Amino acid sequence: VQLVESGGGLVQAGGSLRPTCTTSGLTFRMSVMGWFRQAPGKEREFLAAISWNGKDTTYADAVKGRFTISRDNAANTVYLQMNSLKPEDAAVYYCAAYSGPYLGRGMANENVYTYWGPGTQVTVSS
User: Fold this and answer.
1) pLDDT at res. 20
2) pLDDT band at 46 (very low <50, low <70, confident <90, very high)
3) Among 23, 32, 51, 91, which is least packed, fewest CB within 10 Å?
């Protein structure tokens, strides 16, 4: 199983980015997908999760209304649309996969996830 993030980069505050996570070797259409981030010196932080069919989503309060998670099961890909970026959003962004029932707020627990990507760096300049 491989998860590979892309689409990070450098953006000015107020701008947008859309990291992408492409998977292989995973029964993607049956997997719950999540996005996390980790800034230097901080713990990894939950951002968003989406159920296998996209009907259920969960967001961290810090990004609700600014970030949107979506998926394309035909392409084995999950996206994170990030708008109104702030300098404090700078971090390495990770996608993760979990094969099981959607747990709602329980998807914020990183220990639930089985597979992780290597991450993509997001830098936000002020």
Assistant:
1) 98
2) very high
3) 51
pLDDT digits (tens, 9 = 90+) for 85-124: 999 999 999 999 999 999 999 999 999 999 999 999 999 9
Three-point CA angle 111, 4, 17, nearest 5°: 95
Alpha-carbon Rg for the chain in angstroms:
13
**Both structure tokens of 61:** 């309060």
On whether the CB atoms of residues 43 and 36 are closer than 8 A, the answer is: no
Q: What is the dihedral of CA 106, 108, 110, 112, to 10 degrees?
A: 20
As a whole number of angstroms, the distance between CA 15 and CA 74 comes to 29
Phi first, then psi: what are they for 62, rounded to 5°?
-65, -20
Q: What is the pLDDT of residue 121?
A: 98
Question: d(Cα 65, Cα 79) in Å, to the nearest integer?
Answer: 15
Longest dimension (CA), the chain: 40
> Could you tell me if 14 and 84 are in contact, meaning their C-beta atoms sit under 8 angstroms apart?
yes
pLDDT at 87: 96
Cβ-based neighbours of 74, under 8 Å, separated by 6 or more: none
